[in-house]
Amino acid sequence: MSIPTDLKYTKDHEWVRLEGETAIFGISQHAQEALGDIVFVELPELETKLDAGEAIAVVESVKAVSDVYVPVTGEVIKINELLEETPELVNNDSYGQGWIAKLKVSADMDTSSLMDATAYQAFLDQ
Amino acid sequence: MELKNTALHAQHLELGGKMVPFAGFSMPVQYTLGALKEYHCVRAEDSCGIFDISHMGQVRVTGPDALAFLQFFSTNDVSQLKDGQVQYAALLDENAGFIDDITVYRINATHYYLCINAANTDKDVAHLQEHAQAFNVTVIDESPQTALLALQGATAQALLQAICQENLADIAYYRFAEVSLLGQKALISRTGYTGEDGFELYLPNQDAAAVWSNLVTAGAIPIGLAARDMLRTEMGYALYGHEIHADITPVEAGLMWICKLDKGNFMGRDALITRKENGKQWQKVALKLEGRGIPREHYAVFANDEQVGEVTSGLFSPLAGGGVALAYVKPEQADAVLNIDIRGRKIPTTRTKTPFVRSCVKK
């Protein structure tokens, strides 16, 4: 499956869509495939403030418990409550309906550690 | 240590099996279908699953003293077995701690067949052979040349009947027969580890691929270790290394029903009687989570603000519709409201009974 070119990626396999002062993130297609069937997502609390790289959510498959790390520094302003009843959306539509949370971010934040689609593909191919 | 492959390794790779190390073997944790769908195929009313469990060990015990020998090691009363019957039992050490849990097949009065856990095969065989000298018996480890398949689910009997001469309806729960599968000899029992009706098939390695392929072609869905663990945990079945191990006795594990204290002496009996009289150290409990989350092995169990135990197996149960767990807690706290600590949050539970979901075995 192709990697969307309008998103940025982390080495921990999160994706993030940067839109000015907001950012939406989730886990990549590669990450959901590696985890297998996802049966539970622990969402962050609203208004949680975190620095890039801190654990923000937990995704659990049948066998594994996996932390999700926030791709950029920000404050949680919306969570994907659909995942409470239908966590499999992370498997079925990881870049769309499987999004985890929306953040308020600073427009001039440092995004130099994020990869674009080409760089992420190269990272996966390593 | 290099991982061992079962006789069906090529089949697993061909079916997209995601191979992981398990008890010294390379085993499929799931196939391309994924663990959840595999699970549902075993529980459904119109399908069945096929499992390669060839990593498990088999031991043949023969000789004039075979019964006396097994009576000394098995907690259960082997003398109650008739030809063609299977019995669940434990092997205990001198302190009544579990060495393993096993099934004993009586072929005839001087010929028995044991199925043991993969991780314990070397330990069990050494334990049995060490004491075999005092008896007129021969103990042979047949694990390396034996394949073991499990066919479990609503359509298991129909699929197996198509390749079996003998009438499978004649084989009741915990009974076995030596039969012909695709023209080759096999031992099959109506046993399993899923809570569904079905069979376990013991056959020589060289016959395994043909039987596997035939059953898969006929519609049996290959099932990996992840779904297998879901199926057995929903039934509340003990798994060695989790609910049972050297520091646990049958008193704690709720397995006194396989310990026949009045049958005569057996290894661990004295310690077991003492433990029974002095009271259990832990109470095994079955818990259903009342909040959101999935209990996992080693998660702490709390009563009020005190940690009173630990989860030994836990999972998201599709049929129960939430998290369920087996745990050991301090006996005096077993009736308190128990909470499971999931990443710092204490999630309330209710005590329930096992199996957590309906069982379909043909008792």
Keyword list:
heterodimer; A: 126 residues; alpha+beta; six-stranded antiparallel β-sheet; 4 helices; B: 363 residues; Elongation Factor Tu (Ef-tu), domain 3; 2 domains; six-stranded mixed β-sheet; 9 helices; 19 strands; 22% helix; globular
Q: How many structural domains does the protein architecture of chain B include? A: 2
CATH architecture of chain A: Beta Barrel
Q: Which structural class do the helices and strands of chain A define?
A: alpha+beta
Uncertain spans of chain A: none
The most extensive interface between chains reads: A-B, 12 and 19 residues
Order of helices and strands of chain A: EEEHEEEEEHHEH
The CATH architecture term of the largest domain in chain B is 2-Layer Sandwich
Average pLDDT figure of chain A: 95
Terminal-residue CA separation of chain A:
17 Å
> In this structure, how is the largest beta sheet of chain B organized?
6 strands, mixed
CATH class of chain A: Mainly Beta
Q: Strand content of the residues of chain A, in percent?
A: 25-35%
Helix and strand sequence of chain B: HEEHEEHEEEHEEHEEEHEHHHEEEEEE
CATH homologous superfamily caption of the largest domain in chain B: Probable tRNA modification gtpase trme, domain 1
Description:
The complex is a heterodimer of chains A (126) and B (363). Chain A is 19% helix and 34% strand. With 126 residues, chain A is an alpha+beta fold. Chain A has one domain: RNA polymerase II/Efflux pump adaptor protein, barrel-sandwich hybrid domain (OB fold (Dihydrolipoamide Acetyltransferase, E2P)), CATH 2.40.50.100. With 363 residues, chain B is α+β, with helices and mostly antiparallel strands. Chain B folds into 2 domains: 1-280, Probable tRNA modification gtpase trme, domain 1 (Gyrase A, domain 2); 282-352, Elongation Factor Tu (Ef-tu), domain 3. In chain B, helix 2 packs across helix 7. Chain A binds chain B through residues 36-37, 39-40, 42, 58, 60-63, 65, 84, and chain B through 18, 29-30, 34-37, 39, 226-227, 229-230, 292-294, 296, 315-316, 343.
